[in-house]
Amino acid sequence: MSDNGLFLTLEGIDGAGKSSHLDALEALFKAQGRTVVRTREPGGTPLAETLRGLILKKPMDPLTESLLVFAARRDHIVQVIEPALARGDVVLCDRFTDATFAYQGAGRGFDNTVLSTLEQWVQAQAGSAKLLQPQVTLWFDLAPEIAAQRLAGARVPDKFEAQPVEFFRRVAQGYADRASADARRFVRIDASQTREQVWQQIESELAARGVLAGGGDR
Ligand code: TMP
Hints:
50% helix, alpha/beta, five-stranded parallel sheet
């Protein structure tokens, strides 16, 4: 795998505003001469997008949901993420495995040990003892009550967006736990700020971590 590939993920509860910064992030890396692969989970391949439709719409038990999420992830990794990183591209991925620990683990109360086992199977890398993980995760942290207000009336809610605020309190705690367990990878973004302030924070955190260095003339 190329040393220059960058795997960057965006995470947070529904309504935290992460996806609205994808255009600017893509432009930022492209301005540095990087090739950007912009993708999302669940999804990112035809098969994974088909599974996304089921995951977001059909009621199912938490193990079934976790298996489908990881099946979609496996296809996405093999078809899109690993080849892009091997080429040295920037992979901008809207959600990844942290969302599984936050939504299925903390939100649904599903067994984290099973999720860790699935993570090891799905994110194993040929010829390496290390699992495939993002280098940087932008975690958009927002109080669930504010996120719910932002989402209200915005669009027809999917299965997760329709959950009560109590579910999102657990999901938010799940993200906080993941962040404290891997503080080097996680960048906490204060998503209660204005959109412009959020963007300024993103830019300065990425610059501070050196992921913008060496690309072009910013
Ligand atoms: P999105 O609306 O940000 O694209 O995310 C789709 C929904 O899927 C969101 O409510 C979170 C949920 N989700 C999970 O429950 N588990 C996962 O592993 C992923 C990636 C997303």
